[in-house]
């Protein structure tokens, strides 16, 4: 190896040593605090957050569905059926809910 290559390689290794990150490596898994931190975040942040979202959804559902159903008014421009649906008896939509979706003549129940 020539003297120039030797000097060049030594300068690169010294530069790398100066710019190296000190302390435990996140990639190598040294330190042992990573898994504990994520476990604690999961139990003390994520699980309560999911519980609060479930509570919020439940309360909103109770608020929206706690009121009586609106009275059926047979407007001429709504629920127009020019053709029968290709499934079932042809009067009900594909995802028909008899409590919420009225037929042209009114609610079923």
Explain this structure to me?
The structure is a single chain. Helices cover 45% and strands 0% of the residues. It has helices spanning 3-19, 34-65. The chain is elongated and about 95 Å long.
Strand content: under 5%
The rounded Rg comes to 34 Å
The helix content is 40-55%
Structural class: mainly alpha
SS elements, strand count = 0
Question: Which descriptor suits the 3D outline?
Answer: elongated
Unreliable stretches (pLDDT < 50, length at least 5) are none
Largest sheet: none
Rounded mean pLDDT is 83
Order of helices and strands: HH
Number of continuous helical runs: 2
Concise structural overview:
This protein is mainly α and 109 residues long. Helix content is 45%, strand content 0%.
Topology, pairings included?
Layout: H1 3-19, H2 34-65
Keywords:
single chain, mainly alpha, 2 helices
